[in-house]
Amino acid sequence: MGRSNEILLPVKGSFILLSILGGLTLNLLPWGEVGTLLRPDFLLLVLVYWIIYHPMRVNIGIAWLLGLVVDVAYGNLFGQYALAYALTAYLALVMRRRVLMFPLGQQALHILPLLLLMQAIVMLIKLSSGTYWPGPAYFLSSAVGALLWLWLPPLMQIPQRKKPNTDPQ
Predict the structure, then answer these.
(1) For residue 75, what is the DSSP state?
(2) Inter-residue contact 24 to 70 (CB < 8 Å)
(3) pTM to 2 decimals?
(4) Residue 36 contacts residue 56 (beta carbons within 8 Å)
(5) What are the respective helix, strand and coil percentages of the chain, to the nearest 5?
(6) pLDDT tens per residue across span 109-166
(7) Distance CA 92, CA 138 (A)
(8) How far is the C-alpha of 7 from the C-alpha of 87, rounded, in Å?
(9) Confidence of residue 3 (pLDDT cuts 50, 70, 90)
(10) Which of 58, 85, 110, 145 could be joined to 67 by an S-S link, Cβ 3.0–4.6 Å?
(11) Alpha carbon distance 105, 156 (integer Å)
(12) Separation CA 142–CA 144 (nearest Å)
């Protein structure tokens, strides 16, 4: 658990916005064929992090709005990512206290079903609109996202850590 008992500084709204924009940017980058298959939904990972660690700052409504932004950016059926993000955000909020009790490795095991659920919702909507089934490899990006969770909380908490006191007194 190590640093989990550490008292962190309050998170700045500008850092939350910057991390969300970073997640959206990583989602929109061209990754190539194999990269796209393995690329997790970075924006969803960032949203789930903020919902679990700071639910008063980022909530289901923000997840829904960002889902609409992703729908427009991808040119998909309007509302499919909004629905998937909102449902995933709701479940992340419900699981919040349980997830926070565990170390990062076990947190990743709790995050994996959330990522799989989001992908399943999007795939069901796409299948109902006539898209072909991409196969089980479609869900590999959720496993990669769960692995990235191991580094996401420590990385996002760097700006919240107190600076070491260099005063000699």
Answers:
(1) T
(2) yes
(3) 0.91
(4) no
(5) 70, 0, 30
(6) 999 999 999 999 999 999 999 988 989 999 999 999 999 999 999 999 999 887 777 7
(7) 22
(8) 31
(9) very low
(10) 85
(11) 16
(12) 5
**What does DSSP assign to residue 79?**
T
The answer to whether the beta carbons of residues 141 and 123 sit under 8 Å apart is no
Specify whether the CB–CB gap between 135 and 32 falls below 8 A. Answer: no
Q: The dihedral of CA 58, 64, 65, 68: what is its sign?
A: positive
Residue 167, pLDDT > 80, answer no
Q: Which long-range contacts (CB under 8 A, 24 or more apart) does 20-24 make?
A: 20/46, 20/47, 20/50, 20/58, 20/66, 22/46, 23/47, 24/66, 24/69, 24/70, 24/73
Domain ranges of the chain: 12-160
DSSP state of 161: S
Backbone angles phi, psi at 129, to 5 degrees: -100, 10
Model confidence at 4: pLDDT above 70: no
DSSP string, 126-150: HHHTTPPP--GGGGHHHHHHHHHHT
Which helix (H) or strand (E) is 100 found in, with range? helix 80-100
